[in-house]
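Feature request, filed as a ticket because there's no other form

It would be nice if the structure record came with a short human-readable summary line next to the tokens. Right now we just get the raw output. Example of a typical job, pasted below so the devs can see what we mean:
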Amino acid sequence: MNTFTGIPFAAATFYAELAKNNNRHWWLAHKDIYDSAVRLPLESLLAQLAPVFGQSKFFRPYRDKRFSPDNSPYKTEQGVFASNYEGVGFYLRVSAAGLSTGGGYHSYSPAQLARYRTAVDAPVSGEILVKIVKSLVEEGFTIDCESLKTVPRGFARDHPRADLLRHKTLSASTLPGLPKWLDTPAAAQEVAARWEQLRPLVDWIVRYAAP
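Raw output as currently delivered:
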């Protein structure tokens, strides 16, 4: 029996305070809040959504400081990823700003990037993606991507889908923030509804540009 009752507003407060006290002493003194307001509610939520959206992965709360001048040890958000496919799926984040949901892919291989560009270049699959992206923007999603400054070599600069060809990664997200339903069981349905809006994008990537 699932016991998801919502994501407490205390989760946002926890991350707001962490941003001001990003050190091991503070983290250890408040880890019980992380467990009760962040980790356990999200684990319960993802277990409830897993039959439809796939198994989940929790991103580590610890920062990788090896390639960053920022020495703060902890991430100021908790990210999770749910998927039935390797590397492509649905995202959820909790931070001081509240809840963020998204979907798509954030990393790629050269082979995947080649498949993506071929699919964008092709008239049928390319136009399908144009319609998906346009629909998501109209529904209030932000298109997130790592992209080139110019159209990649081998494609015309005036290509009708030049903007999409420049993308190296592709995802979309929305920030519900701190709505009244966040700390209620209805949060599961709200997250599921937003992920369903993203399903056409995820399915397109799986079909035409899988890792």
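Something like this underneath would help us a lot:
The mean pLDDT is 94.
The beta strands are 55-58, 77-85, 88-95, 98-105, 142-144, 170-177.
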